[in-house]
Amino acid sequence: MLKSKANEVIVLISVVVDVDDTLINTERRMHGVWRELLGREVPMEAVETLGLGQISEKFASSDQKARVNELRKRFWDIILCLENVGSELAELDEPIAFAAEVLQKWSKHCQLVYLTGRTENTRELTLDQLRKFGFPTDNIQLTMFNLEDYARARGLNPSGPTQVDTKSKLFSSISKQYNIVRVVDDYPGYFPIYKQFDVPERIGLLRPKKYSLQQYIDRGATRVVESWKQLKDDVPKRM
Length: 239
Prior knowledge:
Order of helices and strands: EEEEHHHHHHEHEHEHEHEHE
Oligomer: single chain
């Protein structure tokens, strides 16, 4: 976005923020997804610490393991709300403490862009959640994946893009619109993208049950915080 001031062209500064497990805690939803998928309770500790393959290996029945491709596809179909139960389970999501308060403050100083792996079919659901939890939804940009971006994960197209590929493509598009001065994300695997685009402030929101602080630093984070409260008085500035 460009603004004119006299004869000067000003590029509006922007902050890019992830949604799931950065702003909105999805652990209770994921716990419900595994219960729906496997027909049994999976300990919350496992949901908080293990990945898809690890949980499947540890808790799926022999019959379910024999149908691993079907299991994987249904997992993603529920997550992406292609089944009604996915939208119902989204009601279990909760806001992460202090995040809404911080973003309300930031939104007065910069263009706020939500960049999420959620897909376009969940746009209204996502905006409704953000409003309900007190996050800014006016004059923001919500950039989302398409269902085709998950063809590889769902086992429909082994040569399809990875989630990192899609995130990089979308981030590149955002970087052409705005001067991105800060990004906040909970997943270390995306930080090489942010480093590649020379974002000055690359902030990792630590998920200590799943990732170590060093993993964020090694992948390109410039700093790591344990809580949004640490960012309460840290308003983004033009670099």
